[in-house]
Amino acid sequence: MKLFDLSLYLVLDPGLCARTGMVETARRAVAGGATMVQLRDKEASSERMVRTGHALKSALSGTGAKLIVNDDVEAALAIGADGVQIGQSDWSATDARARLGPAAIIGVTVETPELARLVDPEVVDYVGAGPVFATSTKPDHKQPVGFAGLAAQVAASPVPAVAIGGLKAEHVTEVLAAGAEGIAVVSAICGQPDPERAARSLWAEIAVVRWLGEGHSA
């Protein structure tokens, strides 16, 4: 059985992480509670992706956090990453699965309930659902769907979903209420003065919302 936790999913941005560096940002974020880290660098060559990926893999070793590579299946294979996140215009999930094997974690970006419904649970492990809000970290994103749109995507998906798109700690309640397993963030951790503290704040909010959801009183 594949074990991974979508609760607090950090998507690295090289620009926002420039001051601290992507590897150190990831290390600190995981120390603060981040459960998955995605290497996303649209401008990087495969060689640079692999170099950064190896450094990330070393930094995250023994933490339990999973390393996911955005789009670049060959780089993920070379890094020995835990998996990939692919968009609708990138590799097909079937091709990525064939290349990476049964143990890899494969996530697919969906932007509509119709796309979520088409996901094959025999191939795909989770979906990235949204975008909930507009965000400057991904200028080419689709029309924001809000929390109602997020809930519709989550309900249509046959696999767990992580919500993405301009999300911060104050959105945790709505994200989990929509049925998502976790929250994916970029600027809420990347570029923050203290990435560990930022992650810890997000993780604390997730824990409180889940605790209240189990019927405990505040």
Structure explained in plain terms:
An 8-stranded parallel beta barrel has the order 1-2-3-4-5-6-7-8, surrounded by 6 helices. The chain has helices at residues 22-31, 46-60, 73-79, 93-100, 113-117, 146-156, 172-177, 195-213; strands spanning 8-12, 36-39, 66-70, 83-86, 105-110, 126-129, 161-163, 182-185. By secondary structure, the chain is of the alpha/beta class. The chain is globular and about 50 Å long. The longest helix is centred in the C-terminal third of the chain and has 19 residues, at 195-213.
What does this entry show, briefly?
It is an enzyme of class 2 (transferase). The protein is of the alpha/beta class and 218 residues long. Helices cover 37% and strands 16% of the residues.
Output the radius of gyration. Answer: 16 Å
**SSE ordering:** EHEHEHEHEHEHEHEH
By DSSP (H or I, 4+ residues per run), the number of helices equals: 8
The total count of strands amounts to: 8
Top CATH class? Alpha Beta
N-to-C CA distance: 35 Å
Q: CATH superfamily name?
A: Aldolase class I
The fraction of residues assigned to DSSP E strands is 15-25%
The count of domains is 1
CATH topology: TIM Barrel
Major sheet characteristics: 8 strands, parallel, barrel
What is the share of helical residues? Answer: 25-40%
CATH architecture label:
Alpha-Beta Barrel
Helices and strands: which structural class? alpha/beta
Oligomer: single chain
Instruction: Provide mean pLDDT, rounded.
Output: 94
Q: Walk across the major sheet and give the strand order.
A: 1-2-3-4-5-6-7-8
Give the uncertain stretches in residue-range form: none
Shape designation: globular
